[in-house]
Amino acid sequence: MIEWLAVLAVCQLAGEAAAQAAQLPVPGPVCGMAFLFVGLVLHGRVPEGLGKVADALLLNLSLLFVPAGVGIMLHFKLLAGDWLALSAALIVSTLLTIGVTAAAMAFLSRKTGPAARGQ
Amino acid sequence: MTNLRDIWVYLAASPLLHLTLTLVAYSAGYAIYRKVRFNPLFNPVLIAVAAVVTILLVTGTSYGTYFQGAQFVHFLLGPATVALAVPLYRQIERVRRSGAAIFASILLGTLTAPASAIAMVWLLGGSRDSMVSIAPKSVTAPVAMGIAQELGGLPSLTAALVILTGILGAMLGPPLLNRLGIKDWAARGLAMGVASHGIGTARALQVNEVAGAFAGLAMGLNALATSVLLPALWHLLFAGR
Question: Which of B15, B21, B64, B124 could cross-link to B69 by cystine, CB 3.0-4.6 Å?
């Protein structure tokens, strides 16, 4: 298990280094995700241990957002300034984005061939 | 009595207390979430954040003190983001087959998110700061803050709006997708990842592995596309205003 955690850490480190060196607009961990993906493509399958570690981390992904989420307490004043416009914009824009993206993907993948349907 | 007080002073200064608080608050939030059979409106992040913020405000604890303990949880976000490559690789066949549809849908979402957010704030008479700061709200937090900075917004306001967007998307996205009759897990996941980044991806992963994989992909590509397109479009449209 530890060796696969180390693989994740190495990918993240490489990602941070690449993002810094090339001044990429994406954060290091996202680059690290791309590196690990390329590694998996080259390897041809997901090693069992890596699969277990990844699943364990990802099943609890929402826990990892709690510390950053609590940070919202620092910004109550800023949010209060325009609260009506901001909250309406957040709700409308988030719903619209979800609806537009999902409808586009459902429509386009129906157009471009037999897509695997969920359920 | 003095003993108890000494113990409290000791514990309050150690990172263990706030690490424990984070884990207990999330466990409680998750227990409620499971009790309502994973109804998205009872989002465990929302419950945990509300509980922790209330406790910190009541006890007069600063966010800095809290974060000394919570940083150990926060730190795992990096390796977890890297791990998103695993579910994505498991869907490589579908990604290959629908590559064009995936990129087109993500691009549409990438443009819809800032355009609709800016338009709504403008329509409701919000300030320019609010318009700029809300524009990158659907992008994962570090990238969104960088974009806000570049456009002359308030990065810390953006950070708060990003978190709220994530929670709102995770809560309201699934019922909206049900109402729209979208059953394809790939489409559902893409939408959650584009609109509400990691928090939407976390919800997608809890429900379905295909949805989770596509959400992670959408989150990454949306961050990349927004950081390239949004500043360019912004300068094109609002240059000199």
Answer: B15
* Dist. CA B69–CA B75, nearest whole Å: 11
Instruction: Tell if the CB–CB gap between A33 and B81 is shorter than 8 Å.
Output: yes
In which band, very low, low, confident or very high, does the pLDDT at B106 lie, cut at 50, 70 and 90? very high
Would you say B224 and A22 are in contact if contact means Cβ atoms under 8 Å apart?
no
Tell me the average pLDDT across B87-110. 94
Token digits for B71?
Answer: 């940083």
User: Per-residue pLDDT for A116 more than 50?
Assistant: no
Q: Which of B23, B53, B75 is the last residue of a domain?
A: B75
CB contact under 8 A, A69 and B142: no
The boundaries of the domain holding residue A95 are: 73-119
Residues of B in contact with A91 (CB under 8 A): 168, 172
Question: B210 lies in which domain range?
Answer: 81-238
pLDDT band of A119, cuts 50, 70, 90: very low
Instruction: Please tell me whether residues B118 and B205 are part of one structural domain.
Output: yes
Structure tokens belonging to residue B59: 């006890």
Pick from B229, B173, B230, B177: nearest CA to B196: B173
Give the torsion sign (CA, B72, B74, B78, B81).
positive
Question: Which is nearest to B168 in space by CA: B142, B206, B138?
Answer: B138
pLDDT 10s digits, B178-194: 999 999 999 999 999 99
For residues A10 and A46, membership in a common domain is answered with yes
Q: Do A102 and B185 touch (CB under 8 A)?
A: no
Residues of A in contact with B92 (CB under 8 A): 41
Instruction: Tell me the ipTM for this assembly.
Output: 0.91
Q: Do B190 and A116 touch (CB under 8 A)?
A: no
